[in-house]
Design a protein that fits this description.
Length: 298
């Protein structure tokens, strides 16, 4: 193995990689292929560099290139490539892992939320065109169930119990199990979707088959489509599909829902992990003071 792409190929067939969960394998494979194809010079990609010549400077150039797609994406790319290069280090193909020495930027905690009118406008626009149907449903479920877009993207019909009107889901991030009731409006949407797409495993696949079969959206495909829907709906550019979960959880907080009950929906494992959703707003303050007065006057 002489080149960076060689160690990536070796890692992708290693027992360590094969021991990962299917979703993680898919994500790592995609990120590693992207990393090796990163253009370092006009006529040379990162994967074409010899392992012996790979250094921190080259890794910094790659990282700066990835930053154009966002801090979160750049950090994920760096982390995944570092895993493969760690194997090269263990095999004594390199003396040190240069990617590990690249200083990553910190991601700022997002606080952006959707308004009720923005959610309604987005969904009306998404459902108005067949090509956006599944994306609309993915975002709709993320908001309704307060779940991550990625988990709704890969949701299967096996996760849905129509008889009991519930969704049973193991979250991909922390492996938390959540059991969610399906309200009337969402139940109707899922029934309609099942009539058209119940013959294949996924709840919200591409509405048109690819190479003869229906497949789910890749995570990198969702944002551009969501942006196209927002543009047509004249919605602000700064709101994203990922903000739907934050919006839904914060709405529960402001409605005065007990923290443990919110955790049963969100999958958080401790009250402290809910802190990013606790906002010092007028509504929150009003709810707190009104409840105190109700207690005093009881």
């Amino acid at each position: 193995m002489k080149y960076v792409k060689d160690i990536v190929d070796y890692y992708l067939s290693s027992p360590q990689f094969l021991a990962l969960r299917g979703k993680t394998q898919h994500s790592y494979t995609y990120r590693l292929m992207e990393a090796t194809q990163t253009q370092i010079t006009k006529d040379r990609t990162l994967g074409e560099y010899r392992l012996s010549s790979l250094n921190v400077s080259l890794c910094k150039i790659a990282y700066q290139s990835w930053l154009k797609r966002g801090v979160r994406t750049a950090n994920l790319m760096a982390t995944v490539l570092s895993v493969a290069l760690k194997m090269a280090e263990e095999l004594e193909l390199i003396n040190r892992n240069p990617m590990r020495l690249v200083k990553k930027m910190k991601t700022q905690q997002r606080k952006t939320m959707w308004t009720t009118d923005q959610v309604r406008t987005f969904l009306d626009t998404a459902y108005s065109e067949y090509k956006w149907r599944s994306i609309g449903l993915i975002v709709h479920m993320a908001y309704t169930f307060a779940q991550r877009v990625g988990d709704m993207r890969s949701l299967k019909w096996d996760n849905i119990n129509f008889d009991e009107r519930r969704v049973d889901l193991e979250q991909s991030k922390k492996r938390a199990e959540v059991h969610l009731p399906i309200g009337d409006s969402m139940y109707k949407m899922l029934q309609e979707q099942h009539e058209d797409f119940g013959f294949q495993p996924y709840v919200a696949p591409h509405p048109l088959p690819r190479s003869g079969s229906y497949v789910i959206y890749r995570d990198v495909e969702i944002s551009p489509i969501v942006n196209a829907i927002k543009k047509k709906a004249n919605l602000p550019e700064d709101i994203t599909a990922m903000d739907m979960r934050r919006t839904a959880i914060t709405e529960m907080v402001e409605a005065g829902v007990d923290t443990t009950q919110i955790m049963a929906v969100s999958g958080h494992n401790s009250p402290s992990s809910m802190s990013p959703y606790i906002k010092h707003t007028f509504n929150s303050a009003s709810n707190a003071l009104n409840k105190r007065e109700e207690y005093k006057n009881a």
